[in-house]
Amino acid sequence: MSAVTSFLTRRRGQGRRWHWTDVVTWAWLAAGVVLMFGPALWLVASSFKGPAQLAEFPPTLLPYVQQTAQVEGHDEPLPLYTVTREDGTEVVLAEIRRIGTNSQMVDPANPEERINVNIADREPVREVGFATENYVAPLVANNFLRFLWNSVFVTAVATAITLLTNSMAAFALSKYDFRGRNAVMLLIVATLMVPLSVILVPLYAVVNATGLLDSLWGVILPTVATPTGVFLLRQYMLTIPDELLEAARMDHASEWQIYWRIVLPLTAPALAVLAIFSVVWRWNDFLWPLIVLSRRELYTLQVGLNTYAGELNVQWHYILAMTVVTMIPVVLIFVFLQRFITAGIAGAGIK
Amino acid sequence: MTIRTATAAIALALAAAPAFAGEVRIMWYSDGVEGEVIQDLLSRFEAENPEIDVILDNVAYQVIQEQLPIQLASGQGPDIARVTNLKEQAQHWLDLRPYLSDPAYWETNFGDRLDWMREEGSDAIPGFLTQLTLTGGFANATLFEQAGVAIPGEGATWDDWIEASRQVMDSQQLPAAFAVDRSGHRISGPAVSYGANYIGEDGNPAPIDDGTMAFAGKLVDWTSQGLMLPEVWVSAAGTTYRAAADDFINAQIPFYYSGSWQVANLSTKIGDAFDWVAVGTPCGDAGCSGLAGGAALVAIKYTQNPEEVAKVMEYLASEPVVREFSERTLFLPAHAGVVAAGGLQFQSEDPNVQPALEKFVQASTETLPASDALPAWRWANAYYGALVTRISQVMAGELTLEEARPLMDQDIADQVAAAQQQ
Amino acid sequence: MTSLGHWAGVLVTAPLVLLARAVDPLLRAWQRWTGIGGMAAFFLLPNLLIFGVFVLIPIVLNLAYSMTGGTEILLAQRPYVGGEQYARLLECQDYSRPLTCREDQFWTAARNTGLFVLFQVSLMVAVSLVTALILNREIKGRGFFRAVFFFPVLLSPVVVGLIWRWILQREGLLNLLVVNLGLEPQVWLNDRVTAFAAAVGVSTWAHMGFYTLILLAGLQAIPRDLYEAAEMDGTPPARVFRRITLPLLGPNLAVVLVLALIRGVQIFDEAYVLTGGGPGTSTLFLTQYIYEVGFASLLRNPGLAAAASMLMAGVLVVLTLVQLRLSRSSAGGQR
Hints:
The complex is a heterotrimer of chains A (351), B (422) and C (335).
Chain A: H1 2-8, H2 20-47, H3 51-54, E1 64-66, E2 68-69, E3 78-84, E4 90-99, E5 102-107, E6 110-118, E7 122-124, E8 126-128, H4 133-141, H5 144-175, H6 181-190, H7 200-209, H8 216-224, H9 227-237, H10 242-250, H11 255-266, H12 268-284, H13 287-292, H14 301-305, H15 316-349
Antiparallel strand pairs in A: 1-8, 2-3, 3-4, 3-7, 4-5, 5-6
Helix pairs in contact in A: 2-15, 4-15, 5-8, 5-9, 5-12, 10-11, 12-15
Chain B: H1 2-14, E1 23-28, H2 34-48, E2 53-58, H3 61-73, E3 80-83, H4 103-110, E4 127-140, H5 141-147, H6 158-172, E5 178-180, H7 184-193, H8 210-224, H9 230-234, H10 245-249, E6 255-259, H11 262-270, E7 276-280, E8 292-299, H12 306-317, H13 319-329, H14 336-341, H15 353-363, H16 369-372, H17 380-395, H18 401-420
Parallel strand pairs in B: 1-2, 1-3, 5-6
Antiparallel strand pairs in B: 3-8, 4-6, 4-7, 4-8
Chain C: H1 2-65, H2 84-90, H3 104-135, H4 142-150, H5 157-168, H6 173-180, H7 192-220, H8 224-232, H9 237-265, H10 269-275, H11 286-296, H12 302-331
Helix pairs in contact in C: 1-12, 2-12, 3-7, 3-9, 3-11, 4-7, 5-10, 7-9, 7-10, 9-12, 11-12
């Protein structure tokens, strides 16, 4: 009974025998690990498949390449197949060429004799292999380093501006009492209701009018005044006792010093959370940079990735590979900062 | 206040860099290798003309469709762009005529299709088609052979083709018999083959006619019978484009209706896996018409350097360059001189490529007038959009075809009304 | 490691600290001259300036767009039509049957969005709550598991849509499993029920980590002695959950509900990449409708799209206010 209580209420004491709640817990957690990581791993595995293999059904879990063999009398290596002979035995042969449903094959051990095989009776011999050209080709041809630099620039600058302006606004909104404070707060929260994707046209008009079109600042500035950031920081700053500020004023600290030397350091956990979110958001931004940037040398990674979607054909093998590339920094953040992020949000996010 | 000044200063300093004299920007999208080919051709041009700096911005097609129009509306944009939406944006193209050394060359070689890209009644030369496209079908010859089904010959109807493909599907246990790209453009040639005409006598859209309904009805029936691969059309809303090429490449369907631009794509991706042939457009009651189209390279009116732009365009439109571009990209040329001279050496070792391209050249002589009129018609996209949106809903079982008919007319009328609202 | 990080931190922040010192005299002068009110204005100004230019002005412009017609993109070239666009959107014989409406796709999208929010928010709250309860137990590797559920939050919506499309399509991972179990493969995104369920499930998958953490923070703030006292009294667990856990979790649950609702109504990127609105129009949501009408289609109609987005925002504001009012009254004097 008490075990059930602790499941529904709080933590269960360790040790003792397995209770069904433990089974549920571990089943849930195991399913969680598979469900949360599995899809991303599938993407990574798929990104190493060649274009033909991507369209294969049923799909294979791992990427494969066809084995080839160097056969005497042929300059190029020939692809190998397992051929089922009429008596049901199987033999590995190399294919010279295919004409219609007929395949001309040769035994690598006996290169003189030509064997004709119906293509229904042959299966390619494959081994696990990685189509690394999915990665190499775009990285070499696509001026990848330039895109990477643009992405880093946008992410870093936008995050810095976000932290500074949002924390200043949050400071004013939490520590000063002035007319219209609630109105400002309401206005900021209300804009949460209008997502960017539905005001694209007017926003574009504004960016165009301010001359920021086709510049990285046109990507940065519209995103930095996040209502979420102001809201989060303000909620956190409200918990800082006003007495601290009063004491500092007694010591002739200026308001700027109070903000900079007292409030900001105390808000560090919330700032860290906002910083991490801002980095992830700006790194992942896609639609808006796509609209603002049309010069290739200004592309961010996410936009560069999209050039593989043509009018008539999508080059999936490149898109998947480049998607994995853009995920790498996010995964690194995850690996190195996960404790910090989750503890930070749990501790600071909502008070 | 300091912040505002600082922001303004930063904004000014980093605002879009002014176009330098001698700089020409080309906005380009790629379906295959044409981006690399054009870059190569342009590098040669730059070597010969060091005073002109040509910058190729390779962008997603989405940028051409969604972002370029807004740039153009605000009087901006690149100097040259590769676009497919030619007629509707004609007011933004630059008339190259005064800058060209030999306008007659352009009229002789590209004259037929200049109407696709200029305003009604104008004689401007805004650019040229980088490639001509024609819709048409492809068959997986190896699958047909394995099934022991003969590939339908000249004059075979749509019904013949689908029946033959069904036999292949049954024999080879394939998920479907055929697929058509999800696009209003793609089904319009076949619809014309069943007697459809989209254009009213006044040049405005005509109501959906029985010819259109006949082919749409067939598509819907084939989908509900499981003959047409359902996910291409059904699994998207609105006017989203979806190609079914991957299913053909993967030998999941023996017959695929798309167009000439797929040749390079099919050749690269299919490789030696099976033999495929281009088969033109199957016939309807009124004919066997595909639908022509193409992408054009056009000069933009808002350029600072029209002379340099004209020079780049003259180079790219010159006969040897057009020839090389077509041979390397496996695109059909739209240059009358190149077509007349013939003897294009398409650069491919794939034995399937040359006959396929020849088939498309031959099929281009069989198009009907109602189909030839569409590329230069202002409301074509309104029509295509309504067809895709509503026929997909019918296929998904949300509407009957009869219910869809007035909705399509309404959709088209809405578009026309909105565009004419001044 | 720590000292290295420390010095790196000092190096990065040193210029900032110096800059902050340098501006102090200027700001002191400003403060002396304008008083505290002036300082409040100073702190608010940068954010409000950016906010005003890039958020408020576009919203106001959007309102202006919604009262114009035609297909021109620049506002100056568009004719004023008053409430015509709104009238067109709202014209309907029977609101429960979208096909009887003038803009049937708008109403289809509205209905789909309503259903989506209903299912997604319930699923989100249920899954997040269970996960938070489990993560609140004393289990080995809690930090690790907490992070596991958070991982998808870091992925971009486009990547999320792409990953799952790659799993659910005909050649996808799910069919590989299905075939191995000896069952018939399905085209999951081609059936209205499974496609809709996929949209709900995938968006839950992508965001549940965030809500789980909010709820977990709430759970951990509940004083332990409350439970100990309840256990001592022999209170049944279901009752403890209802009487202690739920009420004390109230504020956090309210935050989760409001945020999930707002984001649910705005569902776009991941669903767009995943299903494209299909099959038919069964996963066509409002934001996609607005995006396509106003921006993406070949013949765009910015006025109609703007009107639709104003209607959507209006409904959202009302919903949020109602929800906040409800959760405040039910939470009683908790806050």
